[in-house]
Amino acid sequence: MAQVTADERSVLEEPAPPATAPPQKVSGRSWPRTVLLAIGALLFLFPFYYMLMASLQLKPDTSVRGAFPTSGFTLDNYRSINGRVNLVQSLVNSGIFTGAVILCTVVLGLLAGYALARLHFRGRGTLFAAMLLVQVIPFQLLMIPLYVMIVRSYGLADSYLGMIAPFAINATAVFIFRQFFMQLPDDLFSAARIDGAGELRILWSIALPLVRPAVLTAVLLTFIGPWNEFLWPFLITKDADLQPLAVSLANYISSVAGRAANPYGAILAGACVLAAPAVALFVVFQKHFTASDIGSGVKG
Amino acid sequence: MLTTVLGRQPLGLAFAAPYAVFLVLIFAYPVGLAVWISFHDYFFTAPGVAVDRPFVGLDNYTAVLGDPEVHKAFLNVAVFLVINVPLTVVLSLVLATALNGAVRGRIFFRVCYFVPYISASVAVVAVWLFLFSNGGFVNQLLGPLAPDPSWLINKGLAMPLIALFVTWKQLGFFILLYLAALQNVGKELYESAAMDGAGKLGSFMNITVPGVRPATTLVVILSIITGANLFTEPYLLTNGGGPNGASASPVLLMYQRGIEQGNPDTAAAIGVLLMIAFLIIAFVNKRFLERD
């Protein structure tokens, strides 16, 4: 597997000249490429545009012209979804779930990533192999045994702890940290050790400040996991006061799906509230979602 | 002495220990438990209640393998993969190549392509439900060409639509993977190909496609993982795998059998079979794509 290093990250950020044609041909040949990219962008963005527009119309018009409303904007749908599911409580639950998962992932991931990258200890190879193996086991396949353990054996149904536990570790975050720690020069660590610094001290005061971008990337990548997660919190929370927004919105969708007049306006207003934080974070921090960071996560 | 037993920096053990403990508790033990449950007559009890759960050998597996609904669910995943995997590979490679050469608007397009990937499935399922509903925007756009019955309640179209949805949602991630892989394809290869008079299509087929083959292996495996995991889409988009099981997935069946109907033993057997099927496909795919 080809390795992508941090150096190549900068390559991705810079506007690279086309590799296939000499410069004088660029202007003549670049328009099909731009058209292709623009059609792609339209297909990717249109559902989001439509979601927002329909959520702002009291009675969304499904006709083709209705996709481009010029008047009748209202926030009624947001009030209506707030009456059906407790938006504030759901958002708080999503926040607690997501925040705790990020905290566990970053703390456990930093320690494990540092150990795997910089320390020689017995079982390091085994641990790394186990992490690679875990990545190919789809989480959903563990649904039944985890449900049995957490809900039936430990009685953690309808609790934040039960919701958080299966997500507390994340191989992607460990891979990102390991990758970044490995890129730091060896001299830095031997110098600190000669000066008598303990490993915890080295990690905290020397290595951590240098891998701050990796921490940000790991936080951003981890955020979208629990914030968007549906299956697991859906399985273990029956109490509406504990459900994250993804679950309460899904329950609302499936409870009204059978009815003739679907209140799509309210559903789409809820969808906008659910999608907005992740999209906003991504747009603001988009340059931290680079291919090499994600690549190092999935490739090891 | 201690160094030879624990390694040069035994503190590493302490650093890695919390992670390793979670790995055992959340992955290793549940995998074992799933296999154990699938060989026993298992049912739910309240916490702390000890009951007899007799060993039943392969009974759960014979029940599952003889169940037409299970056959259908696995067949549905096959349909999903046949549509999703080629579409994902071709579209993400083509768009990544276009993006790689683009001079202007790279960041804008990157953001556009990535937005579906980072959005919650539940939120984007909601808008697809609306777009593809009976009198929805897509049918209005198609006019007389609109399928009857409509997309989500049409036996032949429900699963392909789910495959399309997942392709759309995941594509941004795969475009980024290919974008990284493209940086490793030597520019001089393209230059010499252009010198030899190769066209754009020619150099794409003869240089780009073989050049990113390792990434393709990864894209295919990750797509298959997505297919094996399918739950939210059939649960919400087609209202529980409808119409009449035409879009049910194995994970949806595991949920319905195991948790709704209280038969964790047969659900665990479905899970183990799915895991075996997935490992075989991943292995064959690795062999097939990595041979030279």
CATH superfamily of the largest domain in chain B: MetI-like
SS-based structural class of chain A?
Answer: mainly alpha
**Alpha plus pi helix count of chain B:** 14
CATH class of the domain at 92-244 and 272-299 in chain A: Mainly Alpha
Question: Key features?
Answer:
heterodimer, A: 300 residues, mainly alpha, MetI-like fold, 15 helices, 70% helix, globular, disordered N terminus, disordered C terminus, B: 292 residues, 2 domains, 14 helices
What would your notes on this structure say?
The complex is a heterodimer of chains A (300) and B (292). With 300 residues, chain A is mainly alpha-helical. Chain A has 15 helices and no strands. The model of chain A is unreliable at 1-28 and 295-300 (pLDDT under 50). Chain B is an all-alpha fold. Chain B folds into 2 domains: 11-38; 59-290, MetI-like fold. Helices cover 72% and strands 0% of the residues of chain B. Chain B is built from 14 helices and no strands. Chain B has helices at residues 2-6, 11-38, 59-65, 68-101, 106-118, 121-131, 137-142, 158-182, 187-195, 200-211, 213-229, 232-237, 250-260, 264-290. At the A-B interface, helix 1, helix 2, helix 4, helix 5 and helix 6 of A face helix 2, helix 4, helix 5, helix 6 and helix 7 of B.
Strand and helix layout:
The complex is a heterodimer of chains A (300) and B (292).
Chain A: H1 6-13, H2 23-55, H3 76-84, H4 87-118, H5 124-135, H6 143-153, H7 160-164, H8 171-183, H9 186-194, H10 199-210, H11 212-228, H12 231-236, H13 245-256, H14 264-284, H15 291-299
Chain B: H1 2-6, H2 11-38, H3 59-65, H4 68-101, H5 106-118, H6 121-131, H7 137-142, H8 158-182, H9 187-195, H10 200-211, H11 213-229, H12 232-237, H13 250-260, H14 264-290
Helix pairs in contact in B: 2-14, 3-14, 4-8, 4-11, 5-8, 8-11, 11-14, 13-14
Keywords (chain A): Cell membrane, Membrane, Transmembrane, Transmembrane helix, Transport
Protein name (chain A): Carbohydrate ABC transporter permease
GO biological process, one term (chain A): transmembrane transport
